Amino acid sequence: MLIFIENTPRAYAWGSMDALAEMLGTPVTGEPQAELWLGAHPGNPATVAKASPAPQTLIDLIERDPERYGVDGGQLPFLLKVLAIGAPLSLQVHPNLEQAAAGFAAEEAAGVPRDARNRNYGDANHKPELLVALSEVTALSGFRSLVETRRDLLAFAALTRGDASEVLAKVAERLTHGDPERLRRDFLTWVFSGDPLVANALVALNTAIADAGIAASGIVEANEVLRENELDPERVGALRALAATYPGDPGILVSLLLHLVRLAPGEAIYLAAQQLHAYLGGVGVEVMAASDNVLRAGLTQKHVDIAELSRLVDTQELAEPRFPCERVAPGLVAWRPPVPDFQLLRARLCESDDLMEQGGDAAASVELAAVHPVVLVVTAGRVRVERPEADLDEVAAVRRGQSLYVSAGAPIRLTGAGEVFAATVAE
Known about the structure:
Keywords: Isomerase, Metal-binding, Zinc
EC number: 5.3.1.8
Number of domains: 3
Number of helices: 13
GO molecular function: mannose-6-phosphate isomerase activity; zinc ion binding
CATH superfamily of the largest domain: Jelly Rolls
Family: Belongs to the mannose-6-phosphate isomerase type 1 family.
Domain Phosphomannose isomerase type I catalytic: 5-145
Shape: globular
């Protein structure tokens, strides 16, 4: 079955004012819209479009006939989202399976209400994530070399004088001697300890950034000043944005430990369980395990449990945050991280007459396997979806912003002119 599904975007403060409305073809609401959830997560399940006589969620559909619509007789193990990031999200970590099961059981046994502000574990599942950029996306992801972090701190110290310079040098010193993994873990604990040096360091960092701007007559010259001091202007711009959004937040210092990643459209980032990260801006398609377990490390007004986060986080250095795709067939690529819960595929389609212009990036027709249910969203153009081998006609014309739930069965064929993202269970 090809079933249209829909949902109302979630209005988080960090969302874009217009990106999701533009994609969905709906009026701008005047409030930020952050995430469009396309799945059966109980926190915000998608709805079967035009269901009658009563509204029906995807959870209801699967429960009605789990063998036909579910995965192994149960709900979907993944959740597909479209993210529209208008402001930086919190620094966060998601637990692995063992950590989630233990944490959830402990909070249940302790009687912590599931809607309590200080609750860390809403379920017993892990939450690895993969995001593919639709626009340029910036993010903080995974620990970089401490050599690079110290270099930046000392470069900021060199941009200013007096107490501010000394304070930043002291922060760099904290990351100098010892095992890098232990130093990172200790640093996370320290920045939330209430030590006056932390607040002084945040002021000193702002002073150094301001001094770089004062020393220049414009943006181009300011960037040259930064480069002369071996500072990346994009890193400084990210710090400036974080300070403007979350003034005085210790997470600003934590961000210096992480890779700053700028994804071009079509590039992806994989966020394994235990990996510290934060999205900063842009629009992308995200798929994740069906969980809502989040532990935060600043850049937020929400609950921060730094002791629990420090216990869970993987403090190893990450060599490369980006995650490559593999070409499956003409017009079809896949991102297949090492988890059983999901994979994400992208099909690009064009009319036969346009194939020469598109090269190998698009095809007139793409076939997708549907061994398990598939959730797809059209992000550009208009696409015809059909299941040629079905006993009854199964065909749908899907335009940009619309989504389908495809039950398991024979493969589906995509034609038309547009771009489709499809999430399903890993092979």
